[in-house]
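Lecture 7, part B: from sequences to assemblies.

Below are the input chains for today's worked example.
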Amino acid sequence: MIIRLLLIFSICSLFAFRATAQTDSLLVSPQPDTMVTEIDTIRTDSTINASIITDSTQQTTNKKPEKVKVKVKNAFQVFIDYGKIITLATDYETKYEGGIAFQMTNKFVLVGHIGQAELNPANAIKNGDYTAKGQYFKAGINYLLPLDNFNYFYVGGRYGMATYDESGSYEVSSTLWPSVTESFDRSALSATWGEVLVGTERKLTDYVIVGATFALRFMIEKETFEPVDTYSIPGYGRGFDNTVPAVNLYLKLSL
Amino acid sequence: MKNLDRIFVICIIAFLGFLSCEEEEIDLKDTSPYFNLQFRHASRDTILGDSIATLTATVATISDSIQYIDSLIESGDETDYSIIKQSLNDERDSLNTLSSHYGEIRTQIANKDVLVSEIRGVGSNSEPLFYQDSAATYRIPLNPNSDTSMFKVTLSVDSSDLTFNIFTRYTREKKIEQRKVKVFAYNFQVIKKDDSYDSLSQEQEDSTNFSSNDYTAIINF
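Predicted structure of the full complex, as C-alpha cells:
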C-alpha cells in the first residue's frame, strides 16, 4: 500500500514537473530551430504572438501577425508510455511499453513499440480468476501535421503482434450437489491486429516531447477457446472485441 | 481552467489507486443448472370438489326443511318446533363452515402453494435442502457433475409427509454468460420411474435447446 502511494505521489510529481516545464516554455523566446530554413507549412506561431502582445514597447501590436514556417528535422527518438506506469499502482494489471521512432523531414515518422504486460482483470471470470501474460511489438508509420514548431498533430497506422500465455480457473457451485472446479492453462498463444490512430505531441524542450495517442485497434487473427475465450491480449486489450479503442500517453526524447 | 488537465489526470490516478485497493469477491450465484417444480394435488381437489357439492346439497335440504317448518307455523300449526329449528340452523351453520374450509383448501390447491419440507439429492453427500415456507414453485438444483440427477422430495400435507422420487436426464454444456462460467442443462427431461406420484405435466419455454432453466415440471398426486 505504501509503495502504491509513493508511486502515485511520484507520478503526480511528474505531472507537476511537466506543467512547470510547459509554463516555462511559454515564456521563452522562439528557439533557433524554429527559424525558417525550409518551406513546409506556413502557420501562425502562437508563442511568437504571445511574446508580441506582451511586449512593453507596444510598437508591434498593430502589425499583421508574423507567419512562421515550420521545419521538421530528421531525428532519432526514444519514448516510454508513462500512462502504462500508472498500472503499477493497480492489482489488476502491470504494463510497460516503450519504443523508438525515426522522424524524417518529409513529415513521415517510422515507429516501433515493444511492450510487456501481465493482466489480471477482476471481471474476466466472476466465479474464478484469470491471468494473461506476454510480450508484444508494434510497427508502423505516422504522418505529422504541425500546428507550429512546438505542437504537432499526426495520423498513423500500426501492425501489432503479441505472444502470450493465459491461465485461469472457475468454480460452478450448487446448493445441493458438489461444486465443479476447473482450470485451464494455455501457452504460446499469438494474436495480430492493426491500428489506425490520431495523436498530438508538444515539445517541452528541444529534446523532450510529450504526447498522447487515440487508437482504434482491429483484430486480424487470434485463437478462440471454449467455454472461456481469451479475455485480455497484451498490447491489444479485450480479446473478445474485434474493435478496441485505446489511449496512450508518452514521453519522448529526441536525440 | 489552465490546471484542469492536471486535475483530471490526478483524479484518474487517485481513482485507479482506489480501485486497486478494492477486493473483488468471487460470485458463485446462479452458476449451476436448475429446473422448476410445482405440485398439484389433483385427487384431493376432486375429492374436495365432491365433498363441497354434497355439503351444498345437504345445506339446501336443511334450508328447505327450515322453510317448511316456517310455513307450518305461519299456517297456524301450534306445535313447538323451536328445538328442531334451532338444531337444523346449527347443523346448517356447521356444514357451511366445513364447506368454506374445503373451499379455502381448494383455493390453496389452485394457487399451487405447497410446503416442500425437504429435497435430497440421491447419491450426493451434500446436506439436503430444508424449507419453512410454502411456495407455488420450487427451483431444484441439478447436479453439475453429471448428466442425470435424482431427487427425493418430501411434501408436508395436512401434518403428514409424502415423498416423491423425481428422476431427470439432460446434456450439460459449459458457457460463459455475463462473465460467469455456468453449466447449462439442455435436452432436459423428467422421467417418471415409479408410482410415487400420479402423473406428470410439463411446461417448456425453450423449444430449441430444451433448457432446464426454462422447464417447469408439475407433479400431480
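Note for the exam: Chain B touches chain A through 41 residues (CB under 8 Å). Keep this in mind when comparing with the next example.
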